[in-house]
């Protein structure tokens, strides 16, 4: 029994423990920025293991249709009302755990590395714009968008989202520069010094 | 033709998922109308007015009266608590603007105003009276009240969708708005308190109808 194989299910079970649920959902930051991302990560790990065990699975899951499913699921859980509803209705709570794991995490784990350059770029741009939009909304809104949370919580969650957005952009810029440098390096090594370039 | 069928299958799936996804989003936001719980409640109430429960109020003079005693009149009301230091003073100042914008003749027979404290533990008639003095409260058409009975208070707050969460300073975090009940004691409209002109215009059109 390898930890690698079981880390997805273990994380999922941890997240489902009642004290953990209560603790995370007691604050907006815990709910939006810890619980939800970790549900997706748990699904991602489960998906990557499935991909290793059943290599042909990515013929069925992980392509563009999965991407559509992922985006719609994320959009749904970005609506403040859905989060509120998950706190007051058991059915919505179950739906949150199931859909974020099965519809977002698992297909990402199975298919992310198979996705082409354009599809990956699309997902990142979608994510970055959503993070900035929500961050800005939560950080500056004079009214509470979630009835279940305090406004300080909402502002904090907003600022963390904005910070996360900046971090994602910086990460991509750094990666871009590194990749460009590396490509330049291999090209120079392969072709010799390029005097035209 | 393996590729062809695979492309077709994916295309079908994409169309189906987009349709289903849009439908779910559409349903989850009442047709892209309401993105927050508060927005959803306002939308639902405008479409389907909600009965208010019968409750007993206690006003700043210590008098008790039933909600149903105000029947046959429109009621404009707010929820607040006297110790509130952030949103309530703004809300009540805005409410005062609405109250003073309605002609006295209409207040006589058509409309009455209530500021309801959801903190009866602290807000006894004396506290309410202090609060009333700071505002231009006449005590006849506009009363500062509380609902002493905890169950009744909760029922009233639930009916209006008011959530008050205790905060770290011993006060409450709560949603603030101006609520409208019709002559049959049904909640018909929830207004933002930022723009009082909207409230006045709508109320005048209700009263003149």
Please give the number of β-strands of chain B. Answer: 10
Order of helices and strands of chain A: HHHHHHHH
Class per helix and strand makeup of chain B = alpha+beta
Q: Number of DSSP strands of chain A?
A: 0
Distance between the termini of chain B: 69 Å
The helix tally of chain A amounts to 8
Features:
heterodimer; A: 197 residues; mainly alpha; 8 helices; globular; B: eight-stranded mixed beta sheet; two-stranded antiparallel ribbon; 7 helices; 10 strands; 21% strand; elongated
Notes on the structure:
The complex is a heterodimer of chains A (197) and B (209). Chain A has 197 residues and is an all-alpha fold. Chain A is 81% helix and 0% strand. In chain A, α4 runs antiparallel to α6. The longest helix of chain A is centred in the last third of the chain and has 41 residues, at 151-191. The mean pLDDT of chain A is 88. Chain B has helices at 2-28, 37-47, 87-101, 104-109, 125-134, 150-160, 196-208; strands spanning 50-51, 56-59, 64-66, 74-80, 111-117, 142-146, 164-166, 172-174, 178-181, 186-191. An eight-stranded mixed sheet of chain B has the order 1-10-9-4-5-6-2-3, sandwiched between helices. In chain B, strands 7-8 form a two-stranded antiparallel ribbon. In chain B, a hairpin with a 4-residue loop joins β9 and β10. At the A-B interface, α4 and α5 of A face α1 and α2 of B.
Reconstruct the topology from this structure.
The complex is a heterodimer of chains A (197) and B (209).
Chain A (H helix, E strand, L loop, with lengths): L2 H14 L1 H8 L2 H26 L10 H15 L1 H9 L1 H22 L5 H24 L10 H41 L6
Helix pairs in contact in A: 1-3, 2-3, 3-6, 3-8, 4-6, 4-7, 5-6, 7-8
Chain B lengths: L1 H27 L8 H11 L2 E2 L4 E4 L4 E3 L7 E7 L6 H15 L2 H6 L1 E7 L7 H10 L7 E5 L3 H11 L3 E3 L5 E3 L3 E4 L4 E6 L4 H13 L1
Parallel strand pairs in B: 4-5, 5-6
Antiparallel strand pairs in B: 1-10, 2-3, 2-6, 4-9, 7-8, 9-10
Helix pairs in contact in B: 3-7
